[in-house]
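Letters spell out the chain; backbone shape is given numerically. Both lines appear below:
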Amino acid sequence: MAAVDIDSAADPKRMANEAVVVIGAGQAAAQLATSLRSGGFAGPLTVIGDEPFLPYQRPPLSKKFLADRPPPDSLYLRPAPFWAERNVAFVLGTAAAKVDLHSRIVTLADGREVPFHSLVFATGTCARRLPLPGLDRDGVFSLRAIGDVQRLRPAFDQARRIAILGGGYIGLETAAVMRGENRDVIVLEAEDRVLKRVTAPAIAKFFDRIHRERGVDIRVQARVAAIDGEGSELVLRMADDTEVKADAVLLAAGAKANDELAQAAGLACRDGILVDAVGRSDVENVYAIGDCARFPSARYGRLLRLECVQNAIDQAKAAATAILGQQVSYDPVPWFWSDQYEFKLQIAGLFDGHDDAAEIGDAAAGRFSVEYRHGGRLIAADSINDARTHMLARRRIAEETNKAASAPIGAA
């Protein structure tokens, strides 16, 4: 199911004193709050965020926001009056430090306590840290939040040569922005190709070529052993005893779920908080949604943890219906996108587990798609500058995977 429509069947009187608290103030939290209010929930609704910003879009951070430097509120999903009109309370700039599921209290880092009836973890992800000496040196950055951009942008403005550790979405999107500013960029990818975890070889080969043609120095199977130096005189010491010099370094080696708080509270976690098809954890009235949640997919025959806007929105809608006492099943065809130079990559479904792939269109012209099948069923499609094919693929994947969802695809 791609989306959930919430009606107003909830009983406002029953819910008036059933406080809902959300830990995390991103896209999933914003959608949950909106859906609860539109669904008739009249009780106290509090959103706790460790950043000092209202819920905002994160995908532009490594694209337009990094390049154009607009004010932070340009990313806001909704302005402050929207939330005030819906009586959604925000506690921003203070992290949740502890959750007591027995007394049903969230304790904040400043000591304040927030009681709840229903609790929703929407804690997202953080940059995956490598076991690498020197990551804490000046001039080494990650890129997951507005504050990260505010910290790294001045250093990048002064940099002539930028090293990026990781050739995934964030790494390559940042490389494209930096080349647009005519800075020297080197991408160090530990795997044997870029985009290894997110797409198949044909798409990776295309973007590898595009970046190299634009002047990016891409090195695969490049393992960094340590980072030495300070500020604008950083030296990356490689495992093969070579050195790479850089004025600034971006760590873009993937993300991990922010599930430590939930795990400390006693919830079951496995690189993400384990939940059912509507975001319910193994504790009554406790949920997890968005990037931090791992949920079962009958469509793909395994547990999924998805880092995408689609999942943040649709899983939040599903959890809201459950909190409102209604029934819904959430089993999406996920979709993602990435903007690099003038090319838009749109991904529908999950390609891992495919046993056949077919390329359609003209890669040389920069407009083509790759379809992935398992047992004859279309399970995923990557499209470059081809929005129509992407939209049709999403529909076809939904139909074809529903027909035989009992046949597992990929690894558990």
Q: What stands out?
A: The longest strand covers residues 367-374. The radius of gyration is 22 Å. The mean pLDDT is 92.
